[in-house]
Design goal:
heterodimer, A: alpha/beta, Transcription Regulator spoIIAA, 5-stranded mixed sheet, B: alpha+beta, Heat Shock Protein 90, 5-stranded antiparallel sheet
């Protein structure tokens, strides 16, 4: 079973809602990722997704993020190097969402 | 962990490890098992961290395709087989399923993204789809 933690923060005091993920995202738990994003959004038009503690994700997660980017103003926080940066670049997700690089 | 991998990568691998072969049901739950086995094997083969990251993602895409598409409409359990072998500086990876080939639904389809990614991550890809299943063969030249 794929283990990951999804920490949901609702919008408050003008800060957009956020989901912080730790662990692996794949086909086995992408539904949990989608549900966490939907729960965080709760009608808001902006969403921040912190992926700095993600140890693995692939185009299954990219597809979920593309879907959210189509209807919301999506910001992603990623580590400056590593496979997620590669993934965002090749998939073009970095062109439809804001990407912040942070250690 | 990355420091240990870095120092190990500088040492020439005099004895490459035995080829890896993993056979599992083509189910989403198997993907994490494949990654764990492959990570361990790549560490044993002293593959550099950047190539490890590329290979995990390329194999992850190919296995996710199999677990998601090969089982659609299957009337029996579908098996997913992953192999990895090292010959000098050449890493050969195969992902095989004995299910049914489902073509991509369009440029935004998952399989489209997956194959695009695999192409960018390894040096060559060959996809063979028959009635008996699908094989994705990948070659990665190590630095």
């Amino acid at each position: 079973m794929t283990q990951a933690k999804f920490h949901v923060t609702k919008a408050s005091d003008g800060r957009p809602p956020a989901v912080a993920v730790a662990g692996d995202i794949d086909l086995a738990n992408v539904i949990d990722f989608e549900e966490a994003m939907t729960a965080a959004l709760d009608g808001s038009s902006e969403l921040t997704v912190d992926l700095t503690r993600v140890s693995y994700c692939d185009s299954v997660a990219v597809r979920a993020l593309f879907s959210k980017a189509a209807t919301t103003k999506l910001t992603m926080i990623v580590r400056p190097s590593g496979h997620i940066t590669t993934l965002l670049g090749i998939s073009g997700l970095d062109r439809v969402a804001t990407v912040i690089r942070k250690d | 962990m990355s420091e240990a991998l870095n120092s190990a990568a500088g040492v020439p691998a005099s004895l490459p490890p035995e080829a890896m072969a993993v056979n599992l049901p083509a189910l989403p739950e198997s993907l994490a098992v494949v990654r764990a086995r492959l990570r361990a094997w790549l560490a044993l083969a002293r593959v550099d961290p950047e190539s490890v990251s590329d290979v995990l993602l390329a194999v992850g895409e190919a296995t996710a395709n199999a677990a998601e598409h090969a089982v659609v409409g299957a009337t029996r359990p579908v098996t997913l087989a992953v192999t990895a072998a090292l010959s000098g500086k050449l890493l050969l990876l195969t992902v095989t399923d004995d299910g049914r080939w489902k073509p991509a639904t369009g440029p935004q389809g998952h399989r489209g993204h997956g194959m695009l990614l695999i192409n960018a991550l390894v040096d060559s890809v060959a996809l063979t789809a028959t009635d008996g299943g699908t094989t994705v063969q990948m070659l990665k030249e190590l630095p």
